[in-house]
């Protein structure tokens, strides 16, 4: 009988940093979770890939598939998508593209699936001595969005640093974001960065902050902070920027009120509710 995969904190996913930073767009959180489940089956002393067994019960739980008559149809669809997924890794000389899996079998009598990583991925999973990332499977499975999963892997791949900087071009490519996010940093910030920050800090021990880097008015990169001191520095800088923004707003309101008083020496009560009334007077009770 095939045993369920241990989901305790000591069950680890181990892969190369390059694979963590690869460009790919999982169709759902369930597809990413399936890949993570398979990755935990790779052993440090493996010299070659094997057929990695995963009980259907583990896939159902990780993919949150309802336990009804459609379980195996959902499983079929999930593995189809995973089999067709292409990932791209940037190299100094260009890029490499890989498919994740080379084979997938469902063994009915064992109620298990056997998946095999594509042989070309061996350098990213086997005999890793340096430039690799380890993280707890349970933490990854707890993350509720694909962007949070991907940001988590990217950040964990920089564990040895207190901070790192990624260009917006690289971030968008790694995360395979839609055109709307590439045109609108506010949307990217809300749907990716802020969501990932909330999810990761709620579900995992990883603590981090980020800072947009601008050239003129355009955000060209994001700096991520991991160390306690660098996170505190980023938080202090963000707080100062917020205070400066509020101070600027208050100064603008004060100047508008002064101008309003000069324009209406008899008071502006009669103007309240009109476009000629300053904001301070508008807010008076």
Automatic annotation (TrEMBL):
Belongs to the initiator RepB protein family. GO terms for molecular function: DNA-directed DNA polymerase activity. Transmembrane segments: none annotated. Gene3D superfamilies: Winged helix-like DNA-binding domain superfamily/Winged helix DNA-binding domain (1.10.10.10). This is RepB family plasmid replication initiator protein. It comes from Desulfobacter hydrogenophilus. One of its GO terms (biological process) is DNA replication initiation. Residues 13-155 form the Initiator Rep protein WH1 domain. Pfam families: Rep3_C, Rep3_N.
């Amino acid at each position: 009988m095939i045993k369920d995969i241990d989901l305790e904190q000591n069950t680890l996913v181990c892969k190369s940093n390059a694979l963590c930073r690869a460009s790919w767009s999982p169709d759902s959180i369930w597809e990413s979770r399936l890949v993570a489940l398979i990755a935990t089956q790779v052993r440090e002393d493996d010299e070659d890939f094997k057929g990695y067994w995963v009980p259907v019960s583990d896939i159902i739980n990780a993919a949150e598939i309802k336990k009804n008559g459609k379980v195996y149809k959902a499983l079929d669809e999930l593995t189809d998508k995973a089999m067709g997924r292409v990932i791209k890794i940037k190299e100094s000389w260009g890029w490499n593209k890989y498919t994740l899996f080379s084979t997938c079998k469902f063994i009915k009598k064992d109620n298990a699936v056997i998946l095999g990583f594509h042989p070309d991925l061996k350098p990213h999973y086997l005999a890793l001595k340096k430039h690799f990332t380890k993280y707890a499977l349970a933490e990854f499975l707890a993350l509720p969005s694909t962007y949070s999963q991907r940001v988590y892997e990217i950040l964990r791949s920089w564990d040895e640093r207190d901070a790192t900087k990624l260009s917006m071009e690289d971030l968008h490519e790694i995360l395979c974001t839609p055109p709307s996010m590439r045109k609108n940093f506010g949307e990217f910030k809300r749907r990716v960065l802020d969501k990932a920050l909330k999810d990761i800090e709620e579900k995992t021990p990883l603590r981090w902050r980020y800072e947009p880097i601008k050239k003129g008015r355009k955000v060209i990169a994001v700096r991520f902070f991991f160390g306690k001191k660098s996170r505190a520095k980023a938080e202090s800088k963000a707080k100062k920027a917020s205070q400066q923004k509020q101070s600027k707003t208050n100064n603008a309101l004060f100047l508008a009120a002064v101008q309003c008083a000069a324009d209406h020496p008899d008071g502006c009560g009669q103007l309240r509710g009109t476009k000629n009334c300053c904001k301070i007077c508008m807010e008076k009770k």
